[in-house]
Design brief:
This protein is mainly α. It contains seven helices and four strands; from the N terminus they run H-H-H-E-E-E-H-H-E-H-H. Helix 3 crosses helix 4 and helix 5 runs parallel beside helix 7.
Length: 214
């Protein structure tokens, strides 16, 4: 899963850095914040596509099976969660993240899969152990959500019943991240691409910056 960073990857990483930097500045300035919120779905589409274009010819076919399964699983769990509150707790999505299906923004499943992919690649750089790698991925997913939640709530990405984020949400993030990484290993997914790792880190830094600024 690791190797040297190719020119195309470097170009995409620089593009992602610029996009997230503009996003931080745009959200910080009150006059442009509303515009940034309207652009959020388009930004997610552009950044996701930018990550995807580096995959071609550097992944095996099992990667695509894993990605589709992870996307479908997380989206279905989100749909169940919104309707019942059983998975993550009681919450509802606002209108910031774009068109919805079953009351869940379609882009959520894509971002879930990319974040877990990035976390898995980072975990693989820390440990190749088949037990530790999934656990590290789960911990990275929870850490990401701890930073994400206050910013997402403040920007009306979603809202929680009662206003507080329930512990079960973080437990769900850990379990989903861990199981997805286990599936990644079982399916023998191969990917020679560093961009998902940077996508995870840059989005993580983006939310840290907004948490500190807003």
């Amino acid at each position: 899963m690791e190797g040297k960073i190719y020119l195309k990857e470097k170009s995409v990483i620089i593009l992602l850095m610029l996009i997230f930097l503009v996003g931080i500045i745009g959200h910080t300035i009150s006059l442009t914040r509303e515009t940034m919120l309207h652009l959020t779905p388009f930004t997610l589409i552009i950044t996701s596509l930018a990550v995807f274009i580096t995959f071609f010819n550097r992944v095996n076919k099992n990667f695509y099976y894993w990605f589709v399964i992870t996307f479908a699983l997380t989206f279905i769990l989100e749909a169940i969660g919104v309707k019942t509150g059983l998975i993550f707790g009681s919450y509802n999505y606002g209108n910031v993240l774009g068109p919805k299906l079953l009351d869940v923004p379609f882009l959520i499943g894509i971002n879930w899969a990319l974040i877990i992919l990035g976390a898995t690649i980072i975990a693989a750089s820390i440990s190749k152990n088949k037990i530790l790698l999934p656990l590290i991925t789960g911990l990275l997913a929870v850490t990401f959500d701890l930073v994400l939640e206050p910013v997402a709530i403040g920007l009306n990405y979603w809202s929680w019943a009662g206003g507080d984020v329930p512990i079960q949400n973080y437990v769900a993030w850990f379990v989903i991240g861990t199981l997805s990484a286990i599936l990644f290993l079982l399916m023998k997914v191969k990917i020679n691409d560093e961009v998902p790792k940077y996508y995870f880190l840059l989005q993580f830094l983006f939310f840290i910056a907004l948490y500190l600024i807003l």
